[in-house]
Amino acid sequence: MTDTAVNTSQMQISDEVAISIQNMNKWYGTFHVLRDIDLTVQRGERIVICGPSGSGKSTLIRCINALEEHQQGSISVDGTLLSSDLKNIDKIRSEVGMCFQHFNLFPHLTILENCTLAPIWVRKTPKKEAEETAMYFLEKVKIPDQANKYPGQLSGGQQQRVAIARSLCMRPRIMLFDEPTSALDPEMIKEVLDTMIQLAEEGMTMLCVTHEMGFARQVANRVIFMDAGQIVEQNAPEPFFTNPQNERTQLFLSQILGH
Amino acid sequence: MTTLSDPPKSDFRIGMLLSDTRYRSYTFQFIALMAIILSVSYLVSNLLANLDRLGQDLSYEFLGAPAGYDINQQPIPYNSQDTHLRATVVGAMNTLIVAFLACVTATIFGVIAGVLRLSNNWIISKLMSVYVEIFRNIPVLIWLIIIFTITANVFAPIAEFRIPRDGSDPARTLIFGVMAFTNQGVFVPRLTFDAGGMFVFWTFIASIIGIFVYKSYVKKHLFATGKELPFWLPALAILVIPTLVMYLVLGRPVGVQLPEMGRFRFEGGLQLRTSFIALWFALSIYTGAFIAENVRAGILAISKGQTEAAAALGIRPGRIMSLVVLPQALRVIIPPLISQYLNITKNSSLAIAVGYMDLTGTLGGITLNQTGRAIECVLLLMLFYLTISLLISLFMNWYNNSVKLKER
Amino acid sequence: MAQDHSTAFVRTQEIPPAPPPPGETGAVHWIKTNLISSVPNAIATAVGIYVVYWLLSGLIPWIVNGTWVTNNIRECREVLAGSGGGCFSVLTERYAQMLFGFEYPSEFYWRPSLAFSLLFFAVPPALFPMYLPRWMLIATGLYPFVAFWLIWGGTILTPIGALAGVMVGYYAFTKLDKYGFAAALGGGVVGAWVVWQAFGMIAGGMPGFIALEAVESRNMGGFMLNMILGVVCVSLSIPLGIVLALGRQSSMPLIKIVCVVFIEFVRGVPLITLLFVANVVLAYFFPPDSNIDLILRVIIMITMFSAAYIAEVIRGGLAALPTGQYEAADSLGLNYAQAMRLIILPQALKISIPGIVNVAVGLFKDTTLVSVISMFDLVGMIRGPILSSTDWAGVYWETWAFACILFFVVCFGISKYSQWLEGQLRTDRH
């Protein structure tokens, strides 16, 4: 994937705050999964979150669109405070797109219907307009010809690209990726990463939980390392990979880069 | 600890009852509660108005009044001067008796049919499929009535067993001298217990437990020393010898009483009435067809790979069945089997269609009709079945959990 | 290793396929492996053949020598004279009673018969949606109203009004959908209710407008009654079952408890006790002046009964869906009603269909229990008016065989369909 050089200079990071998380804590029962998370994301940032399994990285991004409830601290997205008010939750969810490890496409709907469902029912977009938008994004992820097939007929890589298109159809300002390539066969990882790189080039604010360190080096402007529910280290990719400070980061990097 | 920075407590607005996730669920539940209270009070007010109009009340006092009807199968002494409550208890015991016996025989039918359906003999497996499909797809009530009709019309009348006046041989005699199938039921030998007879009985039960103890000892011995002790012969000895010794020592307190033809009817022995036989057999053979399907599915669920893996380890075919396939298949078979037992118990209420005096026949039938206490009787009837169902469900949950724990 | 190289080999010619050695295929081989592979197997075969012979030797003379034309059982006995044949005349003489009951006017038998035949047009579009065009579902949708009119009779305004109410309600629902599910549902119900009231007044005003002669509910009987109870109760219990299943999955404790108690209570008692409720208890809970006939009370209780079982089937379907589906719906901003209606239920119901069909078969068989509370369904007809008549007392083999065949054909057909559908669903997923 390194053959497509990414022009990082084009990716503007503005001063505008996209996501602000302060002193956030979360427990599963008595288990403290997220501890004192403080994170501010500027508009246009591409952040990669990595860490061993069970470190809370998925839980962190799932808290951002309220798939999981946090118990202490505050999260605000584009200035909207994530509270128990349904209106705020709905507003945040319509501005934040999310891609899952297992794609979670709706198997009983065609690709096109998957992409138009939310715009029609949540945004109340007229059907025709929603379909045009959907086709625009499906072309963007390079699978317009599959629009009338069902998810089960597509390969994993294609399904994940559809899932990205489905999120984009809601015109989100922020995208969350929860291990988008972990469930894919090796030969399909590249097509999904290419799509994500393309998104990054267009200036989308992105938070990716992933183990694709190549992707992190190439696209991210910040890498966050989490362990045991805490942010252990964060830095720009270059210093992060070449000169990790914390012991646990060093150990983790040596394990995943070692082989 | 961090400082709490919860969202600022905004003023409460009425709209938040619906829009705020903290209150929303309470709002809905409150609305639901109101709706429930309204509909229940509507129903109760109708009930009271109707009772008032008919000059009735709700009371269980009738249970203390004499029942005034006979019950033809009495596990405990009962006569028509006894109370409705006692009649109810007799009915409940009759329900449990037929349900228990039907569970046992249905399991036997089901296991045989289920295993034979997987047989590699084409004719046998097809015959079993025909059995399963025919019985599953025709209502149990029709089977019950057909079997009742057969037992009541096809079996010989008792008169044919009587010794004619001229002293010649009767038209029919008892099968092997011990059993008779008649249109008034089946007559079989009855066990009689004299003083000390119960000791023999309990010795026998203890022997059966002893066999299981011995089996676990054999297993322990095998694990500890690697040597396999003989099982079947010692097991037979454990089963027979103590009971026999007890029987002889106590002076043969257990006897068998054979049915004998008296002047007009059979005397002695045990009469299994037509209605009982029909209900027992119909429930067994109908539910057996369903159990056969469960057994077949359970065995098929154990993949061929398991058998092959065991064979590759060098385990003998008989042992593969008992060590690898059966323990796994039972895990699949037992939960649906228990729910079939539940079905048998519930279906035993069809007794009323053939006049077997189970709980539905006594409490829900004659007592209800005589006293006119419809609400009280039906409520009590439902509570009885509900209690049994809940007990069976509890057992099933316990079983499922114990199986689940072993998996980890 | 060096040796391996020296024995290098390259095939240059294909080996042509050869037939297997004799005795490995064909009929002889089949008999060998399936019937007489071992001594016990051969014995089993002999036993099996004897059982088949025994069954057929009773059955064939019974059918072949049977008589179809006598007037009563005494004539039957004369004609048959111990030939072992069946007295099928009871069927020729009384089939109409077994099918329609003894009080349905005989001149109108064509009406339920026509309703039954129409079932063959109404049901396939719903059962085989993958092979038939969608517009044919219109036949399915219209069927209940047509069938009601044919069987019960009365003015055509009644079913038209009911249909109009449903359509107005549906239209209102779709129009109000953008204001939220609750508003749409409320609007739909109000719309339907208004139309029903209006048509109720019109129909009350002109009872003779294109009317079939009305037949009262209590005159329904025979196999028709089993069919009516089965079809009506299953159709009504599916929506109720969905609501109960969703309630049982709810995170709100009160709603959950109410649904669990209802489901477990109904599943814990025999259907017969619920029929007793319909027969002698339910009337107490209606307003004193109301007069709700027995068939309607029975329909209420059987519907509740099957709804509890269907709810459990659907709960299984809901539990089988991966949580990712709920999360994806949430992350796209769909609300609860939308997520359920558009994402969760379509998938959960699809997995549940075979289970629902099994419940339907069981319920259809259980409709015979109404004979216990002295309704004259097929079983009630045979036990009561037919076997206790002087003409046909004692013709039980023939009558019960007829009942068995009717039930077997319907239930076996539906179970086969459910098995076929299960196979379809399995292949669908991959």
How does the overall form of chain A come out from the CA principal axes? globular
Largest sheet, spatial ordering of strands of chain A: 6-7-8-3-9-10
Order of helices and strands of chain A: EEEHEEHEHHHEHEHEEHH
Give the strand content of chain C.
Answer: under 5%
This entry's quaternary arrangement is: heterotrimer
Overall geometric form of chain C: globular
Tally the beta strands of chain A.
10
- Which architecture of the domain at 13-105 and 173-255 in chain A does the CATH hierarchy give at level 2? 3-Layer(aba) Sandwich
Overall radius of gyration of chain C: 29 Å
Give the CATH H-level superfamily of the domain at 13-105 and 173-255 in chain A.
Answer: P-loop containing nucleotide triphosphate hydrolases
Figure out the total of helices of chain C. Answer: 18
Biggest protein-protein interface?
B-C, 52 and 56 residues
Describe the structure using short key phrases.
heterotrimer; A: 259 residues; alpha/beta; Rossmann fold; 6-stranded mixed beta sheet; 4-stranded antiparallel beta sheet; 10 strands; globular; disordered N terminus; C: 430 residues; mainly alpha; two-stranded antiparallel ribbon; 18 helices; 1% strand
Plain-language structure description:
The complex is a heterotrimer of chains A (259), B (408) and C (430). Chain A is of the alpha/beta class and 259 residues long. Chain A has a domain at 13-105 and 173-255: Rossmann fold (3-Layer(aba) Sandwich). Chain A has nine helices and ten strands. In chain A, the strands form two sheets. A six-stranded mixed sheet of chain A has the order 6-7-8-3-9-10, with helices on both faces. Chain A has a four-stranded antiparallel sheet with strand order 2-1-4-5, covered by helices on one side. Chain B is mainly α. Chain B is 64% helix and 5% strand. In chain B, helix 3 (84-117) packs across helix 8, helix 5 (140-153) packs across helix 8 (274-301) and helix 9 (304-312) packs antiparallel against helix 10. The longest helix of chain B has 34 residues, at 21-54. The radius of gyration of chain B is 29 Å and the shape is globular. Chain C is mainly alpha-helical. Chains in contact: A-B, A-C, B-C. Chains B and C meet through helix 2, helix 4, helix 5, helix 11 and helix 12 of B and helix 3, helix 12, helix 13, helix 16 and helix 18 of C.
